[in-house]
Amino acid sequence: MKVFLLLSALLVRAAIALPGPAITKRSNTSLPVAFACEALSLAFKAETFYPGSVNYTSENEHFWTPTDYSAPACVFTPKTQFQISAALLIFETFQANFAVRGGGHMPIPGYANIDGGILVGLTDLNQITLSSDKSYVSVGPGRRWEEVYDFLEPYGLVALGGRVGIVGVPGLLLGGGISFYSNQYGFASDNVIAFEVVLASGLVVEATSTSYADLFWALKGGGNSFGIVTRFDLLTYTSPTICAGIGEYPSTEKTAFLSAVANFGQYGDADAKAAVIPSIFMLASLNTTVYTSALFYDGTECNQPALVNFTSLPAIANSYGPTTLATYVSGTDALIADGTRQVFQVISSIADASALEIVHDTFVEMVTANIYGVAGLQASVAFQPVTKNFIQQGINKGGNPQGVDITKAPYFWMVENFSWTDPADDALINAFAVNVTSVLEAKLTAAGQQAQFKYMNDAGYGQEIFQNYGAGNLAKLQAIRTKYDPQGIFTYLMPGGWKVATA
Ligand SMILES: Cc1cc2nc3c(=O)[nH]c(=O)nc-3n(C[C@H](O)[C@H](O)[C@H](O)COP(=O)(O)OP(=O)(O)OC[C@H]3O[C@@H](n4cnc5c(N)ncnc54)[C@H](O)[C@@H]3O)c2cc1C
Asked: What range(s) does the FAD-binding PCMH-type domain occupy (predicted)?
């Protein structure tokens, strides 16, 4: 029966899809999706789930924030790349809309889930193996970074990935990926040496710097427009022990804290083993603002000049000290809010003290004036320093789609994060997030501090990502998308996420 169904799908596809008119964006009807769910269920009964089943609910709620829960018509959890090929055939045949979810940490409704379509949950594509020479680790898209770090720890190795362990492997890599090691080695995706990808045609290919090299380049930051990645081969690095922890400082330390951030922003690659994630945290229920910084050093000696401007601040709390990457992330994962409503927005500036002042003062003032009364509100800005060496590493490793302008580096890539508890406040917070971002951008531009690049993984709904990639790379990404997915399966049948074709 399964064979018959797939053959029929193939024939129908051949009849309707060749030579292949481009798919136009269309609203989904329930009938094509119902047929596709039924076809999946016939072919892959054990991997297809309907509303009401335990697996459907757990896959639909396999997201960091409830704002991402949707109402998919069915859920498909493939166990192999070949099941994905067959599913793509079914989706195309029935013209059924679908979404793909890895770790579920992109906090944007509809970007990795779908109302009325098919949710493809990659949970069971969870391989993790070390190469025989230990130079790379092969990881399936169902994995989270904490699992990668745990797996590598006994070997004294690490791979570049999330600074928070619960984040999913695939989304982070397809958007670039800022790691504690990025100051030394570039984006996490600059350190991928192979992607196994299921293309729109159903073909499973391995993209490397020498085979499908254009696709390989595109996947290092081009998002989900090109295929479904079923395996990432990641370079490993020796880093058996590190220094890491979080310092928390009172609001009275504003000047010294911002000065430490500005200094690291400007001179952070003097010692590329150091990394920081400095943030302002506004905790409305406690009516307080605190400053925090995750501090990191790739080495065993924790007393480092590169971090002294932070370690010398009077701290309310400080956990910085010797540890391992796996231990550090498992400790901080417990502190990351899960289950609250969340939204991100991204802005970027050149690494200058006056940019920090503008963002800090405007953000605090606008949050206090407009949304401070919202139940459970936490509002933060993380000032992520991006050094020249970070950008140079990507260039050295063959370049990436982001094409960040190294001549204007260093930068701050800042992520605003709002979390709250009551769905009734969704509209207010979403509107505020967009508004404060446009005010911040206008002020940074007026001060000559605005930077062009917007980091996809920290962005909010509809922010312009590919339009701000450098070196004319959007046109190149669009051409690669057309080559590998001429009908736009991953653009129109899979509408969630940033799409190069419509940027
Ligand atoms: C608490 C927290 C901490 C974070 N920390 C960091 C950090 O340290 N560094 C950093 O760079 N970013 C960080 N991020 C941002 C994070 O990288 C992005 O949200 C990323 O998209 C999450 O990946 P995921 O697999 O969990 O996402 P998902 O929500 O599952 O997917 C994100 C996008 O990727 C697509 N996608 C997923 N898997 C595949 C696949 N196999 N093939 C094709 N497309 C796919 C989805 O369709 C979706 O559009 C953090 C986010 C959170 C919420």
From this structure: 68-239
